[in-house]
Amino acid sequence: MITPRNAQITKDADAKAAQGDFLRAISLYEAALDDSPKCADIHYKLALLYDDKMNDPLNAVHHFKRYLTLSPSGPHASDAKNFMKRDEVALLTNLSGDSVVSRTEAARLRNENLSLRKEIEDRSLKSRTPDKAQAPETRPPKAIAIKSESRTYVVKSGDTLASISRKFYKTSARWKEILRANKDKIDNPENLKVGQTLTIP
Hints:
CATH architecture of the largest domain: Alpha Horseshoe
Largest sheet: 2 strands, antiparallel
Strand order of the largest sheet: 1-2
Radius of gyration: 22 Å
Oligomer: single chain
CATH class of the largest domain: Mainly Alpha
Strand content: under 5%
């Protein structure tokens, strides 16, 4: 049973998380844990903080598991299982150094490669034509086509590349793709600038 003191600690932790003081929020949440079933929600909040804000899938998996142990049919059980699977794949990928690609992602990459190959062939054919005056005219539509496939996102307080990845891709594992797409804008991936506009590939 959560005591009034633990309830106050949890409330303080919620406030710290909202202010962006994630380390203090984690410390307070952990102080409120007593492994009773009532603490399941605290484990879930900790898991999300580790996952989205701290980019720490190992601790996130631990707290998702504790949530499911204490509340196997709780309101967040389905999400916890899905997030846990993604984090486990991310951990295995980091440990092995190999990239684990889903069938859907592999199909998307294959289609992208085919369209890029076609684009390169088209460009090489155009570059062989003697009339060079047309070359500049063909470039702007290409640039516009590439931009229209991308989305943009304005960074808010407390955002990390992992949390932005989760918003767009339902997984925090694709944060590196966002970093690559914005390498000219992001000086420090650990400290995004509020109000900055990022391209989401």
